[in-house]
Amino acid sequence: MVKGNGYGFGRTTLMPIAGELSNQIAVGSVYEADDVPDTHTAIVLTPHVGQLPTHLPASAVLTMADIDHVSAANTQGWTGNVVIKLQSSMGRYGTTPENLALLEHAIRDDHCTPVAHSVHFPLVGTSADHVHEIEQWLPRLNPGLPISVSHLDIDAYARLINSHPDREFQIRCGTSLWHGERSLLSLTTDVISTRAVSAGDIVGYRGVTIPTDGHLVLVGAGSAHGVHALDDGRSPFHFNHRRLVLLEPPHMHTSMLFVARELACPGLGDRVDVQRPLINTDVDELEWVDD
């Protein structure tokens, strides 16, 4: 899968690599399908009910989870290949067992071609739980169509394949592929300015009062990059394994940090660690380091 912000690397960075691994590349939406090379098939994971983009490749495969998705495509004359999305414990879009036949009938009536079933599982639960859900679906599904699954570990996926040699399974790999060894990944930002400040000084968009003598540290990451305080309000910035004080919410391309006078302060050009999920971060620059 190559979707969203490209798992922090950017879709344009990952797309050629994905193309070497498979002739099918799953993307997040119809607006991302044009990123897929013409030599490969784009599998669009999110159903679409609006106007289809004019640049949507004719070979793209759309996901449909109910009759409304079929009707939306049909009114625009779209008659391509379709993945049928199945309901799971995730509770998002997906047809129920009771509505599966009705959806299949609507797809055929609108001259679309089902090419696979798809099921998407939550992060909670075990791989064994997810396999059980898949096996509950199997008797209801056309055995001639592959089943695309997600969030199974390697052993569970192997057991699923071995337990049902008469069925074809495909596994969608995203985070586990691109972030497989997380210890090899780091997210940092540059210190772009520092200056001494005194207790009582007023700084920032919101007129924050400096609590004690120290240094104001400005770093080149902010809301434009998807960087903000952690859910519990703590700063996401660290230096020398110590959390730095975030004076106010990050704004656009800069965040304002404070370091008390008695503590080690990063200098101009130093790197500050950023505690953010890569899938939520718009990265300015990638650095590939050989170890």
From TrEMBL:
Gene3D superfamilies: Alanine racemase (3.20.20.10), Lyase, Ornithine Decarboxylase, Chain A, domain 1 (2.40.37.10). Residues 1-128 form the Alanine racemase N-terminal domain. It holds the Pfam family Ala_racemase_N. GO terms for molecular function: catalytic activity. This is Unannotated protein. It comes from freshwater metagenome. The lineage of its organism: unclassified sequences, metagenomes, ecological metagenomes.
